[in-house]
Amino acid sequence: MRDEDGAPVRAVVALGANLGDREATLRAAIGDLAGVAGVSILAASVPIASVAVTLDGLDESKPEYLNGVALLETTLGAEALLDELNRIEDAHGRVREERWGDRTLDLDLIVHGDTVSDTERLILPHPRAAERTFVLEPWLEVDPEATLAGARVADLLAALRSSEARR
Fold first, then answer.
1. Which Pfam families match (predicted)?
2. Which residues are part of the catalytic machinery?
């Protein structure tokens, strides 16, 4: 999908891994993304560590995640980009047995230009991105002026940190 003037759209992809050589996997995934026709990497964040999130909430007994964000320009539509993300996950040994289970690589499409989608396969903007420090913090690193659903990512991160501090 392109903007009306034919320019590529910006997309944000969140990366995470908690199995294997996490740092090498994230680096390789960025390289794989850069090799996709119609995708250019504008920036990639420094990885940050986070506690595993499961269906039951935070789980410190699980292996710790490394998370990051890649800022892209792409001429691919949202679903075509999602296909490429899934292909890259599979190439890195991603197994989909348990929802929100441990994984060698997780690539989530957070935003794709102004695309709004609510299908069984793809919800955009990502429905939980505003609740995840491990998405907002690296995103803010690579794009200090970023917005998510009309809100500044910096403001979302500040509110999230404030909420976490009160717990």
1. HPPK (PF01288)
2. 94, 103, 106, 108
Rounded Cα distance, 45 and 110, in Å: 15
Q: Which two tokens stand for residue 153?
A: 């990512």
How many Cα atoms occupy the beta-carbon half-sphere of 37 within 13 Å?
A: 0
Domains of the chain: 9-128 (3.30.70.560)
- Report d(CA 62, CA 81) in Å as an integer: 29
**Does the global pTM surpass 0.85?**
yes
